[in-house]
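INFO worker-7 received task bundle
INFO bundle size: 2
INFO processing item 0
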Amino acid sequence: MSVLASLFCGFVFGYGLIVSGMIQPTKVLGFLDIFGIPSGAWDPSLAVVMAAGLTVAGIGYAVVRRRPPLIEKESLWPTKTDIDSSLLTGALLFGIGWGLVGLCPGPAVVNLATLSLPVIVFVIAMAIGMLMHDLRPVLTAAPTSSSLTRPPRMASFGVVLEIRAVNLNRWFSLNLSGMTIKNLGWQPSSE
């Protein structure tokens, strides 16, 4: 049931992006071009979409926090609230990429349907960046004798949205919009 809920939410999000025009990089770049304000070329529509989205999400979270989950056993609310260098660096890199291309991950995935080569290249580069981030601890850590017994196998999918290393030298899971598919042939040991 959670897979269907994730699929439904993804369709609603993607449809909202299409209806609002936010899958068009020119809309995003038009908003980010603050130097276009004096000439009237600035496009404020992204601010309206963000405000509407934050309002609906804020009300939704306020309602949902008071109730037990409908589909899952428990709610998994974020617990990290500190602003650290990792958050600031990620926000800076995200902003640079968004400003250069006019796409962020959600609209980029929706834009894959256009089969536009620049979008495909962007999504591949985005996936490689996510993979590099998640594998950095594995690649920089000194190998242990137990991590050398068998190399981890990673599931292969057409479009990798997010690959997250879990229990870094033991097993990997692929997270697609809340669905976690574990490589069951490689389980963590009970050390």
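INFO item 0 finished
INFO processing item 1
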Amino acid sequence: MPSSTTRTRAVSRVILGARGNGAPFRPGGRGAWPGGGVSRRMPAAAGSSAAGLPRRPWLNRLLRALERDLFVLHFQPIVSLHDGHVSHYEALLRLADAPDGSLIAPGDFLPAAERHGLIREIDRMVLAKAVQLLAERPGAAASAGRRVRVAINLSALSVTDETMLATIERTLHGRHVDPSRLSIEVTETYAISDIPRARRFCAGVLSLGCSLALDDFGAGFGSFHYLKHLPFSELKIDGEFIRGLTGSRTDQLVVRALAGIVRGMGRETIAEFVGDRPTMGMLRGFGVDYAQGFEVGRPAPLLPDRLSHEELARL
């Protein structure tokens, strides 16, 4: 792990997934990275300020967390709407540093990490944790023989950092992990500041053999600009269009159109914040490829090898 005094920016989540032929199964979002759907980041705790918990010295606290390895990952599955099998798991970042022993949501500490220049270091920490897990489970399967795949969500600074691609390659090589088992998620709002650099990074990730997803698609006004200029293998439809899908004609038109466009490009779509069975059925009918949300599975501290019988029954 890099020195805890290094100034850099961070990732709020990671994805662990399964890859392979025919396997059954699969959650959360950003403000709801839980809540009836899939959530990338847990919402900030009630009563906490935008910068984190009230008046806490976040710089020293985050440096201590990096030094003492107090960041933990929780795993939420993503499921194929075609066959019900697990596609992959997303690993969500939490901080195990609350006085009462509870986990602190990313919405509480990430703003402070960005403000103090620690984001890239957290990104690298998450990368290291994800790749180490894959190295320790070389034959692990999520279901029906699929190998576990990890996808990590990188911050804007990492996406436009000229050294990040080499860091990913070096980390994978050092642990002897097949690049196809790692996925990178790029949040579109992070990429807009420097499209040429973001494009080089995305192309480089794909050339390594990793998967790459454009995350929270539709959250920004320039979404289709990124769709045109950034190479990707998967597109994650923002939960804003999914949470009220069954009752909104506008959302239905947008989601159906996006699924058709991405399919026409030879790529795949993932719907976030899927919170009920009617929504899953509608997404399946629209041709969306994967679902993530509470209807499929909630984040858990351990990466399961497969869904429980109860979870499979819901699909």
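INFO item 1 finished
INFO post-check item 1: Confidence is low (pLDDT under 50) at residues 1-41, 43-55.
INFO post-check item 1: DSSP finds eleven helices and nine strands in the chain.
INFO worker-7 idle
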